[in-house]
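About this split. The held-out portion is used to measure sequence recovery: a designer receives only the C-alpha cells and must propose an amino acid at every position. Recovery is the fraction of positions where the proposal matches the reference. Here is one held-out target exactly as it appears in the evaluation file.
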C-alpha cells in the first residue's frame, strides 16, 4: 500500500529505487562496495570474526567459576547459539554476494532484518533475544575492526528513470539509502557510490550530512523522523527532494507521474548546462564571482567543470574524519591541498582550517564526549587547543601555496584574542618552514563570520584580515539559537530573519567600505531564492556547491543590481522579509 513520509527537502530532484536500510550500530561501521572478486575474501572475514567470537565465548564459559550465577552460563549459551544462527550467516552471505556490501555493512543490514522479525514476535522471551543478537553482532564487528579491510572503489553510479523500472524490474535498479542518521563522514564515503538518493530520520537543512548530500547533487530528504522504521529493506520508494517527502510502495500512476517529472528535470539540467561558459554578469554590468565549496581535492575537477572561478571554501575537516583518531600528517595534507590547487588549474583556492566539532565529529566516540558540541570545542577553538596539530595543517597549506593561489580561512573566530593567536600560529608555521628550510608560498588570510560576535565587531576583523567569508549556516544557528541539525526546530531556522539579514548586510557594507573582498559561503549562497536579495545587499561573491552554480548564474544574468538595491532596503526593514521576497 502506498504511503508517504514527510521530511525536510535538502537536495533537489527525484529518485526512484529500492530502499537500502543502513543500521545505526553502536560500533563505527564502514559502508562501501566491494568488487565481485572480493566476495569470497569478505565472506571469509565474517567467518573469521565469528569464529574468534565463538572461541572467546567458549573460553569465558570454560573459565567460569562453579559458583557463577546460572543465568550467566545460560546467556553465553544463547549467544553461542545465535552466533551459529542460519538466518544470520546466510543473510550476511546474501548481502555480500548479491549486493557487494562490505562485511560490516552486510552484518548490520542482516541484524536489522532479523531484529524486525524479533520485534514482531508474540512471545516476550523471544522478543527480548533481540538485544542478545545485537550484542553478538557488535562483538563480531568489534573483533573485525582490528582486521584490515580493502577499500575498493565503488562501482560507477547509474541514474535510472522510472520508465526503466516499469519496463524491467529485474535489472540492477537504483538504490536509495534510508538510515536513522548518517555522519558527514559516512555520507562522504557514499559520494561516488551507486545510491540515487538518501533519506535520514534526523537532521536539519544545513546539517553537514545534508550539505554533503547536496554536494552529491542527488535527491535527499532529512528529518523524516521514523522513516527508517517504516521502510523495509528492498521496498520500492520515491524520494521527492523538492517537496521533502518519501513515497513508499508507489502505485503505477504515482510512478508514472514522478517519471514524467524526472524527465522534465533532466531537460532543465541540460538547458542550464548551456550557461557554463557564459560570464556571470548582471544586466547592469556587475561581474559576480561564483565560487565552489568543496570537501575533498577530487571535487576541484567538478568545480572547474561547473564553471566555478575558484574555490571559496574547502572544508578540510573531511580529510580528518572517520580515521579512528589518526590525523593526516603534514605530507598527506600538503599533497591534498596541492591536488586541490592543481585541480583548479590556476584559479584561487580558499582553504578553511579544520572545523571539527558540532555535527562533524572526528569519529563516533568524539561525538559522544560533548554535551553541547555546537557551543563547545569546535573549529578554531579545537585548533588553538592543540597548536602543534594546528601548525601541521598551516605548514601543509603554506607549502601547497608554492603551487598556486591560496587563501587561508579561519572558522568560527569570535574573540580578538583568537585572531591574535591564529595569526601568531601562521607566523610560527612560516618560521618553522624557514628553519628547515622549505619552500612555501604567499597566502591571503581571511576569517569566517559565522558567530554574531564576529559580525558585530567586523571592523576589528578587517584590521587583521585580507578578506571575510560569511558562513550563514552557523550565523543563523548562533543568532537564532537554533541547532542547525535538529529537525524539531527546523521550522524556526530562518535565513530571512531580520536579525540575520542585518548582520549579513553590515558585514558586506563594512567590507565594501574598506575595499576588502567578502563572500557568502553558507548554503544561502547557493539558494536561488536568495540570490536577488544578496545581490541587492551588495554581495558580489558567492560560494556554493558546484551543482548549484549554474542555477545561481541564471539568476545573476537576469538581475539588475541597481533596482535590487532599493528593493533590498525594503526587505531589510520589513518585519516579515519573506513576504517581500517573491516581489
Ligand atoms: C557556515 O557555517 O555557513 C559554513 C559555510 O561552514 P559550515 O557549514 O562548514 O559550518
Ligand atoms: Mg560554519
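Reference sequence for scoring:
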Amino acid at each position: 500500500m502506498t504511503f508517504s513520509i514527510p521530511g525536510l527537502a535538502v537536495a533537489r530532484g527525484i529518485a526512484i529505487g529500492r530502499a537500502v536500510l543502513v543500521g545505526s550500530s553502536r560500533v563505527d561501521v564502514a559502508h562501501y562496495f566491494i568488487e565481485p572478486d572480493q566476495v569470497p575474501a569478505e565472506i571469509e572475514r565474517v567467518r573469521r570474526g565469528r569464529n574468534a567470537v565463538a572461541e572467546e565465548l567458549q573460553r569465558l564459559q570454560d573459565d567460569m567459576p562453579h559458583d557463577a550465577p546460572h543465568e550467566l552460563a545460560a546467556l553465553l549459551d544463547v549467544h553461542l547459539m545465535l552466533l551459529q544462527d542460519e538466518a544470520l550467516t546466510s543473510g550476511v552471505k546474501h548481502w555480500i554476494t548479491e549486493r557487494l556490501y562490505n562485511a560490516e555493512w552486510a552484518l548490520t543490514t542482516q541484524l536489522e532484518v532479523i531484529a524486525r522479525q524479533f520485534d514482531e514476535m508474540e512471545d516476550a522471551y523471544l522478543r527480548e533475544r533481540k538485544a542478545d543478537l545485537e550484542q553478538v553482532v557488535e562483538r563480531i564487528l568489534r573483533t573485525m575492526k582490528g582486521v584490515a579491510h580493502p577499500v575498493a572503489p565503488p562501482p560507477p553510479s547509474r541514474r535510472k528513470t522510472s520508465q526503466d523500472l516499469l519496463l524491467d524490474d529485474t535489472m540492477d535498479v537504483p538504490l536509495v539509502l534510508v538510515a536513522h542518521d548518517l555522519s558527514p563522514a559516512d555520507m562522504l564515503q557514499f559520494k561516488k557510490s551507486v545510491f540515487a538518493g538518501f533519506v535520514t530520520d534526523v537532521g536539519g537543512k544545513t546539517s553537514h550530512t545534508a550539505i554533503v548530500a547536496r554536494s552529491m547533487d542527488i535527491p535527499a530528504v532529512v528529518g523524516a523522523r521514523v522513516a527508517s522504521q517504516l521502510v523495509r529493506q528492498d521496498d520500492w520508494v520515491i524520494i521527492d527532494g523538492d517537496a521533502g517527502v518519501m513515497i513508499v510502495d508507489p502505485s503505477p500512476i504515482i510512478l508514472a507521474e514522478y517519471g514524467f517529472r524526472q524527465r522534465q528535470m533532466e531537460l532543465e539540467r541540460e538547458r542550464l548546462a548551456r550557461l557554463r561558459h557564459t560570464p556571470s554578469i548582471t544586466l547592469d554590468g556587475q561581474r559576480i564571482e561564483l565560487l565552489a565549496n568543496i570537501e575533498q581535492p577530487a571535487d576541484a575537477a567538478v568545480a572547474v567543470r561547473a564553471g566555478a572561478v575558484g574555490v571559496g571554501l574547502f572544508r578540510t575537516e573531511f580529510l580528518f574524519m572517520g580515521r579512528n583518531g589518526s590525523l593526516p600528517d603534514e605530507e598527506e595534507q600538503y599533497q591534498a591541498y596541492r591536488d586541490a590547487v592543481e585541480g583548479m588549474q590556476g584559479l584561487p583556492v580558499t582553504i578553511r582550517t579544520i572545523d571539527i566539532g558540532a555535527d562533524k565529529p572526528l569519529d563516533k566516540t568524539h561525538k559522544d564526549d560533548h554535551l553541547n558540541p555546537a557551543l563547545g570545542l569546535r573549529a578554531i577553538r579545537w585548533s588553538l587547543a592543540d597548536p602543534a596539530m594546528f601548525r601541521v595543517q598551516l605548514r601543509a597549506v603554506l607549502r601547497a601555496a608554492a603551487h598556486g593561489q591560496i587563501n587561508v580561512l579561519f572558522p568560527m573566530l569570535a574573540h580578538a584574542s583568537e585572531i591574535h593567536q591564529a595569526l601568531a600560529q601562521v607566523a610560527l608555521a612560516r618560521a618553522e618552514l624557514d628553519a628547515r628550510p622549505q619552500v612555501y608560498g604567499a597566502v591571503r588570510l581571511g576569517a569566517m563570520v559565522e558567530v554574531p560576535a564576529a559580525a558585530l565587531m567586523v571592523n576589528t576583523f578587517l584590521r587583521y584580515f585580507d578578506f571575510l567569508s560569511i558562513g550563514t549556516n552557523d550565523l543563523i544557528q548562533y543568532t537564532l539559537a537554533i541547532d542547525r541539525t535538529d529537525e524539531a526546530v527546523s521550522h524556526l531556522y530562518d535565513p530571512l530573519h531580520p536579525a540575520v539579514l542585518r548582520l549579513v548586510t553590515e558585514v558586506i557594507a563594512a567590507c565594501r567600505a574598506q575595499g576588502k573582498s567578502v563572500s557568502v559561503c553558507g548554503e544561502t549562497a547557493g539558494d536561488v531564492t536568495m540570490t536577488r536579495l544578496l545581490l541587492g545587499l551588495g554581495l558580489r561573491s558567492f560560494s556554493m556547491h558546484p551543482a548549484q552554480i549554474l542555477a545561481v548564474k541564471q539568476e545573476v544574468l537576469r538581475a539588475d543590481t541597481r533596482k535590487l538595491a532599493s528593493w533590498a532596503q525594503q526587505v531589510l526593514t520589513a518585519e516579515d522579509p519573506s513576504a517581500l521576497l517573491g516581489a
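Annotator remark: The chain has three domains: 3-23+152-251, 36-145, 278-580.
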